[in-house]
Give the backbone structure.
Amino acid sequence: MTERNAFVDADGATVPVAVVQHDIAWEDRGANLGRLGGLVESAALEGASLVVLPEMFATGFSADTERIAEPPDGPTVGFMLEQSRRLGVWMVGSVCLRAPQGAPGASGRPGGLPSNVAVCTSPSGEVSTYAKRHLFSYAGE
C-alpha cells in the first residue's frame, strides 16, 4: 500500500511524499526487498520525491538481532541506494545495522553490536544515518 501526501518546506515549496507499507515477511530480507521494489517504483512514478518505509522494513522486529543485523554497506542499504539512484527519489527507513568490530557502535553500544538505525539515501548516492538512542530494554536492545 502506498499513501501519497505533500509536505511544504519553509520556503513554501511542496515536497511530494509517499508512505509505503508492505506485508512484512518476518526475518526474510530477500522477500521484503522484493515486495518493496514495485511499491517504491510506483510511488516514484506517481511523483514522490521522498519515499518513507516502515521501521525495520527489511526484516520486521526480531529478538534475534544477531541473525538479522547487517553491515552498513549490506544488502538493505544497497537496495535503498539503488532505488534512490535509479528512480531519483530520497528514501528513509530503519535497518538493524552492526558497526564494524573495533568501531564505535550506535546508541552508545560497543562496536559490533546491532542497533536500530534510520537510514536516508539520496538520488546522488549519499547515505545518512541516525541510531536509535532510547532503546527498548524489554526487547534486549
The two ends are 29 Å apart (CA to CA). The chain has a mean pLDDT of 87. Helices lie at 29-45, 65-68, 75-87.
